[in-house]
Amino acid sequence: MDQNGAEAAAAARSGIPETRAGDGVGNLENGFDIINALEAIEDDRIVEELPPIDHLGNGLDQAHDDQSVGFDIVEMNAQATVGNASQDSNSPTQVDPQSPQNISSSAASGASSTNIQSDNIPRASDLLIAVSVGAEPTRKKVMEQAVAAMNDLTRLALAEGEPLWQRRGDMEVLNGLQYLRDFTSIDSMLLDEVMRLVNFSEQNGSASFELPSSSTGPAFEFNPLHIECSRAIGFVDMAPMTIIELLMDLKQWSEVFSNIVSSAAVLGVISAADGTFNGMLQVMTAEFHLHTPLVPPRKCYFARYCKQLDSATWGVVDVSLENLFPYPGIQFLKRPSGCLIQQTPNQFSKITWVEHVESDNNLVHPIFQKLVNSAFVFGAKRWIAWIMQHCQWQSTLMAPNAPTIDGENGRTSLLKLSERMRKNFFRDISASTENTWIKMTGTGAEDVRVRTGESIPVPGRSPSTTIIFTTSIWLATPPRKVFHFLRDEHSRNKWDLLSDGRFVREIAYVINGQSPENRISVLQVDGFQNKIEILYLQESFWDGAGCSYVISAPVDIIAMSMILNGGNPDYLPILPSGFAVLPDKPATLAGEETGSILTLAFHIVDCNSAENYIPPESAQTIDRVISSTVACIKAAVAPDIQQCNCP
To answer: What region holds the START domain (predicted)?
Structure first.
């Protein structure tokens, strides 16, 4: 480890989590304040590594009486988050996009480019839509569109593979030309011309083309237009009606898919059905995200319709309603998308998911462009994977003897705390419009984004501000290798500043499913003379869609003891940091190895920062933490590419 990293590690250890008697929760201000510890390293800590930064994230010349200026983060596009909200949320919260009249030009400039600018344009307000869906002509149009969408979804889901569906590695993607033949009334001469243009594009290195909207989909144009359509099939140990309830109940849907759904609201119910969800039709709005601020969120208005198709098959379909409720700057539309759920003889459910959307991907960061355009990131397989992940988590929670923590109460508390940590992690690092990210300058080659988080209450003291910072990097190493390195407790001291030179061991764990790599662990970092310095709660898992995650948070000894003895985990403050590992391109049938896209994120307390403001000394420390961690990971998993003096 370089000198800065060693000093950072030594200073950070002075902030090991502690709990005062009677607090009941960890002393977060002492336990997580890495920034404050790092600042105490030297008096002249503001050096030339990071230039001063203004509130727009731009570098400043040395001015203002030679006083450095930090980040000034302006709140934008505040909206309620469903599913990721506090535990006390008992009802759906409607999204209320902020009007651009209330946003200063400087604020708009200061936001990260991944906070989509069209969200600042007045959309058809949720209130207006909620009123409109009550009108009989509108209700009739929504119903007609939903019924037609269900027909399209059923045909796509039940169609045999070739020629409509083509294999691309472990994915099924739609053959656009065959779709034109089967699902539209396009003239044969026009179809021949489209085929000629496509063949010409393929010969010139581009296979993209624009498909006309289907008979059930809205006919909008936006530039550039990108159509994604994929299909995936999965089997889960869950009754069809349980899955249907999960999809039709807003709160359950938002929570189960918290890694995809940022926020959602039901704006109106067209048909409430008869209590079995058969025929239920509701108008919704939702925002979808990836676990990085470098990929813009996707937001739309849509109808969700549930129908029993036969005695053993149900369908749930979404279709955009922007043709009924238009607004300028459309960037995302849902063509008929959703799933068919069929009960199997062994009491499992077979889920066939189709995700068919149109999106403007122009603002996607180059490192993610290939994945997003391939339908991997927002594709059907990812939705299926998270239903299966939820089903497995429920099974582990209910299992009488899941290995291995002594006592059912301790296992349950640990699983629930881990679930909250995981959901907070996805909420913290997304490009959701409620997260206002600033791009740091002067951070070398890494594209670092930073924002202030929620304040943390500290008993007897003023609340402490938290900061979140993240970056994504490319590695020439297969995702599996990166994942196993990061999840292995014996490797932690090779990249974690707080574990440098310390022995890390797993003292308790729960395996979630059949694979031992999917586990919730309690890690203990021992210092000199075997003194416990830190305890970490860590969850690691591979989601089945090619994405893997390692998420952890420090927990003090008394709080962890309470959890392992079955204590209530709901009020234990927890600040997750961690990693998301993606392949750099979709897998091929030949099993070609890919590189990795690694997203790192840290969420810590910083007593020097305030709400919407990060001082220059904290910005400097962020740069050092990111740079040191990235260099150490590169040195460990790709030693021929990057060398550094790491532990």
So the answer is: 135-396
- Residue 251: give the domain boundaries: 119-175+219-398
Q: What is the per-residue pLDDT for 37?
A: 37
Contact indicator for 455, 463 with CB cutoff of 8 Å: yes
Which pLDDT score is estimated for 396? 86
CA dihedral 479→481→487→493, nearest 10 degrees, is: -120
Look at residue 631 in the predicted model and tell me its pLDDT.
93
Q: 240-248 and 380-398 are packed helices; what angle lies between their axes, rounded to 10 degrees?
A: 110
* Domain count within the chain: 2
Establish if 25 belongs to a structural domain: yes
Burial level of 557, CB count in 10 A (0-12/13-18/19+)? middle
pLDDT in tens, 257-291: 999 999 999 998 988 877 789 999 999 999 999 99
Does residue 597 have a pLDDT over 60?
yes
Tell me the C-alpha to C-alpha distance, in Å, between residue 485 and each of 321, 488, 549, 559. Answer: 45, 6, 12, 28
For 103-162, the DSSP string reads S-HHHHHHS-TTS-GGGGSPP--HHHHHHHTTSHHHHHHHHHHHHHHHHHHHHHHHS-ST
Residue 132 lies in a domain: yes
Q: 529 — alpha (psi -120 to 50), left (phi > 0) or beta?
A: left
Cα 95 to Cα 107, 129, 284, distances in angstroms:
21, 12, 10
User: Does the reported pTM lie above 0.90?
Assistant: no
Task: Enter the DSSP assignment of 334.
Answer: E
**Whole-angstrom Cα distance, residue 5 to residue 396?**
39
3-class secondary structure per residue, 412-454: HHHHHHHHHHHHHHHHHHCCCCCCCCEECCCCCCCCCEEEECC
For residue 189, is it within any domain? no
- In 3D space, the residue among 538, 366, 383 whose CA is nearest the CA of residue 447 turns out to be 366
Determine the Cα–Cα distance for residues 174 and 166; give it in Å rounded to an integer: 6
Q: How much is the pLDDT for 131?
A: 65
CA-nearest of 291, 325, 126 to 218 is: 325
Q: How many other β-carbons are positioned within 10 Å of the β-carbon of residue 436?
A: 21
Same domain membership, residue 409 and residue 392:
no
Residues pairing with 404 in the sheet? none
Write the CATH number for 296.
3.30.530.20
Are 473 and 606 in the same domain? yes
